[in-house]
Amino acid sequence: MVRDASVNSGAGLVVDAAEVAVGSAAGRVARTQAKYHRWAGTDRGTRFGDLFNLVCHPDYLQVAWEHVARNKGARSAGIDGVTVRRIVDAGGVEAFLTGIAASLKDGSYRPMPVRRVLIPKPGGKPRPLGIPTVTDRVVQQSLRMVLEPIFEADFSPVSYGFRPKRRAHDAVAEIHFYASRGYRWVLDADIEACFDNLDHRAVLDRVRARISDNRTVALVRAFLKAGVLTELGTLRETGAGTPQGGIISPLLANIALSALDEAIMAPWAPGGDQATQVGRAKRRHHGLGNWRIVRYADDFVIMTNGGRDDVVALQEQVTTVLARLGLRLSQAKTAVRHLSEGIDFLGFHIQWRRRRGGRKWFCMTMIADKAFRSIKQTIRNLTPRRSPRPLSMVLMEVNAALRGWTAYFRHAIAGRRFSFLRYFSWRRLVAWQREQHRWNWTAVTRWLRRPDGSWRPITAAGVMLFDPTKVRIRRYLYRGNRIPSPYKPTMAA
């Protein structure tokens, strides 16, 4: 569940002009972003120049620094060994940002290679993660704040991954919405090593389609070509891909993959034969299927109310589009399915099935088995039988894992899973305490039984074990095109 955050934590910083002081740096950045977003939405063919001055503007660098300093990765250092705390303790934040601006303006700035680390991934295969230097993170964040308002005006509503104000639940809700309306043949697809194989030329061509400022495009290219310092200390050039972990990488991936959204959703564009409900009904009347893509980063599904042959034809189209981006579908993770078989998407299991004891069929959103096994393994890792750690500390870590996991899945049919998770975590903690204190079951009941025979919650130093069954389960409503733009044109001066 590494990438399945409840909100898009990697979606970058969106400065809301309504929530900041008018004269502050954040307020000025917000108003500038709103202007560029408005201009980009007014004319989809406009190419923007003179953006480089915004990237190195003190306001943008200040807001970018604040974002980098607040991020959880602030404690991690790049290949230069410098952390955010080291810069703050030295009292040189202002000088640090002034130096970045000067190096950008005189052309001496060069991104450093990212430090690659391997993080565990479900299934045993590690995921490579790139850690840029603090300097490069600040510049990437500033560049992102310049580019994102422009490209957000172009992105399709069917794209949800790593975009501000959007979340994984919106993608799942859209699948549920259209599955309930007959779109039940599905291409369940995954792009193989998307972030590692994206063709740089394809990315830069799509950036140039909107950006005419050569210095800004050159800065994007420099980040793509920065290289990677491996765990063995060898420098590896990056001829393709965007290193995972870079702030700008998700935006560049979305810019490239928007070509897929545009190709599949072309019939839904104004004037297309699927653009209106009447047009889609006419196609169904003539035995033709309609389709729709739902994409979250490099994971996506294409749904159709036609038949299996329609999905196979769409798969061929997808293969052609991805080939132009230097990508291909993962053979192991891509399949054509009917929703009666069910699909796993972003940790959820979505299936067209009958409700227990009834005759009517519904689209049901449940918790995928893989996601459930993952949280159980997390609890096991936090409660080893021979751990000497204090119970209160373990309870805090277990509670954090349970709260985050249940908050993400509270919109699914999750009652039984939550109930079992309460029992499972309780059993793991009791078994650990029995091993640690050499207790028999009588000692456990003396510890947790009340005089009236009921069980006390496990508590230590004021920390109580979190009860997953107390989480309110409710359906996440499909928002569709009603998701508000993160950049408010009305706030622009």
UniProtKB/TrEMBL annotation:
**Keyword entries, A-Z:** Nucleotidyltransferase, RNA-directed DNA polymerase, Transferase
Q: Domain (Reverse transcriptase): give its ranges.
A: 100-350
Q: What class of enzyme is it?
A: transferase
Q: Which GO molecular function annotations are given, in alphabetical order?
A: RNA-directed DNA polymerase activity
- The EC number(s) given in the record are 2.7.7.49
Coiled-coil regions, chain positions: none
Can you tell which superkingdom this protein's organism belongs to?
Bacteria
Q: Does the keyword Transferase apply?
A: yes
Instruction: Note whether RNA-binding occurs among the keywords.
Output: no
- Which SUPFAM superfamilies does the record match to this protein? DNA/RNA polymerases
Q: Which NCBIfam families match?
A: group_II_RT_mat (TIGR04416)
PANTHER family registered for this protein in UniProt: NUCLEAR INTRON MATURASE 1, MITOCHONDRIAL-RELATED, PROTEIN YKFC
What protein name applies here? RNA-directed DNA polymerase
Please give the organism.
Answer: Pseudonocardia parietis
